[in-house]
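Record format v2
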Amino acid sequence: MDGPVLQIGVICFILHGMVSGVPPEYLQKRKHIIDTEERQRLGGTLVLNAKEQKVNAVLMAAKRKEIELSRDTGKIFPPAISFFQAKKLIDHSAVFSIIKRMPKGGALHTHDSSITSLDWLVTNVTYRPHCYMCYTESGDVMFYFYAKPPTNTDCHWKTVASQRQASGDADRFDQQLVRNISIIVDDPSSAYPTVDAVWKKFVKYFQAVNGLLNHAPVFRDYWRQALEEFRHDNVQYLEVRALLPTTYELDGTHHGAEWALNTYRNVTREFVAEHPDFIGAKLIHSAVKFINKQAMLPNVKEAMVFLKKYPDFYKGFDLVGQEGLGKTLLYYLDDLLYPSQQNPPVYLPYFFHAGETDWEETQVDDNLVDAILLNTSRIGHGFAIHKHPQVMKIIKQRDIAVEVNPISNQVLGLVKDLRNHAAVLLIAENYPLVISSDDPAVWEATPLSHDFYEAFMGMTGEQTDLTFLKQLAINSIKYSAMNQQEKQAAMKLWQRKWDMFIDATVHQHYYIHIPGIMG
Amino acid sequence: MDGPVLQIGVICFILHGMVSGVPPEYLQKRKHIIDTEERQRLGGTLVLNAKEQKVNAVLMAAKRKEIELSRDTGKIFPPAISFFQAKKLIDHSAVFSIIKRMPKGGALHTHDSSITSLDWLVTNVTYRPHCYMCYTESGDVMFYFYAKPPTNTDCHWKTVASQRQASGDADRFDQQLVRNISIIVDDPSSAYPTVDAVWKKFVKYFQAVNGLLNHAPVFRDYWRQALEEFRHDNVQYLEVRALLPTTYELDGTHHGAEWALNTYRNVTREFVAEHPDFIGAKLIHSAVKFINKQAMLPNVKEAMVFLKKYPDFYKGFDLVGQEGLGKTLLYYLDDLLYPSQQNPPVYLPYFFHAGETDWEETQVDDNLVDAILLNTSRIGHGFAIHKHPQVMKIIKQRDIAVEVNPISNQVLGLVKDLRNHAAVLLIAENYPLVISSDDPAVWEATPLSHDFYEAFMGMTGEQTDLTFLKQLAINSIKYSAMNQQEKQAAMKLWQRKWDMFIDATVHQHYYIHIPGIMG
């Protein structure tokens, strides 16, 4: 609450010191409007304790300094440009260094194949025996684990080890692999002039990594490594949209969806047992929105079975893929209504992607309406939601959270300057909302910190402070798929970590070491 | 109302033809939400007559075709890219050709020195005798009319005529002059990476043209030509923010603000007398927001005098200039409160620029709050208004219109893809709003048609139709500074022109000739 106090102070100075003849009612009305707006925003009613206020002072000094640098000296403002170019600026930010250390609660919108760093994938997985690679005719890299690679394919499979050795420079080779797989380019606006263009490359990322991930031992390790990396980024909890793909062993045997589900569940249990400061993870099963109508009902039925069998971990169902090109919720409507039409009705929670589009009043855009009518528990992205006043009204009434993924929306071409992101309005009016990271590995973002930075710097005002970030963490537990008992335990665990973060920042004079603040 | 009917038709087909087991209540609820949103948007309650529906069918076929071309084949969508690059695409658009012929009512937010085409300025004004030019040390072109140019300046004045002749190619020379003065560049994102960068060039435009415009005979002709060009673009009415500068004659005499005001008023009267199908124009006096506090009160006092003396034409007061760098309304507060504090209070209507910024919760951003508290009649730009829920509430209650200038906001660096413009939300919820063009001459836009195109194509959905454009025209009269009697007469005149436009489009089978529709 430092902002408005300071601001009113400035006004008082101006009014008493310089301006004559201003009626006090004017000042009162002005203060009332600004204060009301301040309280109305996400986190606006949180009250910081004395220690939190000290941390807030450090944070806000850094925030103001970074904003002023851009606003007053013309230095590029990171949220205004592509994350591909902004990342190196953000990585030197004092605000970012605080956000990294902050316990951020949960990341509720992430995808199974894009949450563990590409670096790990290249420097760990591609170093394993039997790892093969080849280049397709269009120059895209593919990977697979073979006991003996096929020879009758267009793609000429060679071991990664041999290719690496032939290159003569293993580090450079590995960097090249990372660059080849990620969607990062120097000039995104010319490389990806439209949403379709960037999605074409985005899909190639998944084609490249899936040959690695779907190897059963890697599948297990990839999830384990994801939990490690999220925890390292001070994220306490994870919800993953998971396709539950068929995985393969070197000997040719295959595992089905339930094996993948059990792998996620077991690895998570082990991880939580080893790391009592980690809350855990839950799974949201995802079908792709490109399959025929006929193929959807079996997915829904399988979801109902899994939900019944693994209610502690398997929390619901979603459809994924490029929304603009995919089939709509309306197309699959009777399949999605199937659970609620059983006798007795089955409650299968939905977590639908909807409104991840710039095309207003189209059938794709109407996914937002169907998501609501299908009783979605949250809305994935909801980028177009501000174009739907009725949907806005309903999500506020029913407290349906929007999962906002700032960097994803930017790099996938929906918006350039994040100050123009639709969620700015949702934040200003305290709509139910969480910040997540979608597919951080694809653009080499940290698991959640970079998205928190972009939201804090680009999607709130210069006075919006630690209360916003704290509320985001609280929201991530409140709107999670955990049950009430789990949420209470999660809040306790998070609160303990939060207090430690505050203590560490205050008592250990940590702020002295934050680059750029004191210097 | 074609959109929702068609859409429900599609849904019925899907539901009855393909989808089984969908409860009718679902369909009813869905229709209710979509219909409510449709009625809720700007123009959503207008009912089109039979002839208008025919025109609407032509318009919507063209709109859908242009959207589908982009959405489904990856062709660039004009509202998504800089107007500098989009203009040539728009100029070939069938939607644009209809909008050009449509009587659009008034343009309520324009500036005195940037409303008449640069082409006219170069091919008419710079051809006049005694017109001199020079290049400053930084390479910027300057103009002035001299009986005999000064020789003791750093800028070496030469007649434009001599320079043109020396160039050997008059057409090329003139094109070069236009290019030199306008802010258009091939690659705006690299030429103008920040708002400050593009404003630097924008200010140079005014420096270049003011030497021409402030020559008294040119001043008169420039306004006359502006009225011609707006009328030619099927705009019936104009409100101009005017600085009322000192103007000069060739013999060294100067005229003050009142001369400029009378010139605007007299030329407008003559023009309306000659063109009874033109409604007229009004003036909003503007001071610049860079002057010292001490200098503001005389401006306000002068405004009070002019308002009393010329109530038919001089309609109020505003402050202009780059909002991010300028002084705030708060800074000038007691001066701006001065009229209301007289005994008896004087009502000086304000038409404040506010919220033309991407920087949230700053003193500049708070101009929106002060504009409201100072009882502004309209808000110029209001680009940041969606970040202020209290201000939003008040403008709806008090019916204060926001003057949205889509192309200006884009080329001056606030937003790239106009589908992300904040006014999308204002339109979806039918906030009081008009579309204007700000400074069309600076980026070689038509007086109003290009901005109408961008709003219609980029800031509304695929189903939003002629009712939106008709409501914009009606709003431009409703929210104008005309008095009630004038508004009634204006509505009649506009309605007559509108009916003629509808008749011409229907009866003369005009649509056959619209490029791209029938072919």
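The radius of gyration of chain A is 24 Å.
The longest strand of chain A covers residues 280-288.
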